[in-house]
Amino acid sequence: MELSKKVSEQKKPKKVYEVYAPPYFGGRWLGSTVADDPSKVLGRVLRTSLYAITDDFTKQYMLMRFKITEVKDSVCNTVFYGHEYGREYLRSLVKRGTNKIEYIFDVTTRDGFVIRVYPVVFTTSRISSSKKRAIRKTMREVLEEAAANLTHDQLAQELVLGKTASDIYNRVKKIVLPRHVGVYKSKIIKLGRIEAAKPVEQEASA
């Protein structure tokens, strides 16, 4: 009897679930995933590019991650779960005779999300250790100030759309003129308070 029950469970038909980006990234269709139970869909992470979400070809180097946090019928809602520069793009930023100053630390948003951030500054020439320390301090100050005043969705937009990089640049240029400033990676360490997803006009997957 127990064996037949297990066989029956294994034959449970699978269903296709459509996955969408959160409203703060346009509610765009991200793809499909298959499972025989909605509980098995929760927690899955989908990857795409910022280009696929914004239709901006210049953003194809930015890779995005979204985590499924809610399933309604066959529709999956997600939250931003991190981003990173593509490897080739990041490699292209490294030049001889210059410095790469990076810093890795966690920030907590106003709604309780803990996000690990990876800001980076590339210089036009080699600089002193004291200037490197000043740049790292500046990067931390900018990101901690932003996180304290923003919810996770607001900070996510600023991280990937360039606002954070611009804020860091404007402060760092008082120390040294940078060649490139950005947040090359982020990842969610702890989820905070997630608001119920508001209905959006979701695109057809076709």
Automatic annotation (TrEMBL):
Q: Which domain of life is it from?
A: Archaea
Q: Which InterPro entries match?
A: Ribosomal_eS1 (IPR001593), Ribosomal_eS1_arc (IPR030838)
Q: Which GO terms describe its molecular function?
A: structural constituent of ribosome
Native species:
Caldiarchaeum subterraneum
Q: What is this protein called?
A: Small ribosomal subunit protein eS1
**What NCBIfam families does the entry give?**
PRK04057.1
Q: Which residues form a coiled coil?
A: none
Biological processes, Gene Ontology terms: translation
User: Keywords in UniProt for this one?
Assistant: Ribonucleoprotein, Ribosomal protein
Family from the record: Belongs to the eukaryotic ribosomal protein eS1 family.
Might you report a single GO cellular component term? ribosome
